[in-house]
From TrEMBL:
Enzyme active site: H19 (proton acceptor)
PANTHER family: PEPTIDYL-TRNA HYDROLASE
Entry-linked CDD domains: PTH (cd00462)
The protein's name: Peptidyl-tRNA hydrolase
Keyword Transcription: no
Gene3D superfamilies: Peptidyl-tRNA hydrolase
Gene: pth
Recorded GO MF terms: peptidyl-tRNA hydrolase activity
EC numbers: 3.1.1.29
Family, per entry: Belongs to the PTH family.
Amino acid sequence: MYLIVGLGNPGPDYMHTRHNVGFDCLDMLASDIGASLDRTRFRGYFGEGRIGTEKVLLLKPSTYMNLSGESVGEAAAFYKIPPENIILVYDDISLEVGRLRIRKKGSPGGHNGIKSVTAHLGTDLFPRVKIGIGGPQRDLVRHVLGRFQPEEREVMDRTLTAAKDAVIAMVRTGIDSAISEYNSFRAEQVSS
């Protein structure tokens, strides 16, 4: 069993902001596998589905980004899911818009949501899909809570589709295979 978590902030003010690409990817994944995130559990929006033969639990924490670990920790403990079967999907300012990076583990790199998850799980040994949102020109908070420019939106839509496909590949064929297939992804190389 896998726990797949998209990070973001709840509420309409944050919908489709740079910081909410994890939520956006999880919504696409749920739709793709015929699951719905219509239950409220573990301080988040929760659903269940299947990827191939594997049961997957989908979670969008409603705790706000900086407290995401509370939600993830509760779900992981309840279902006794080991860290290596918890996949996090979230934004990364160190990657340009249109890029993905899959990692098996790693430091939070300044991301408060990942700091919280690491603290609540007691380890950083969980796989993750980082979605590039570009770095800020000036103010970090304004950047991550802002929306994509119109010219970035099409690139981001292709990137979110690739991120969703990468998560599916991680469950179906393993993380090493997904890393080899998706870490070189560049949305501008994909024709629309």
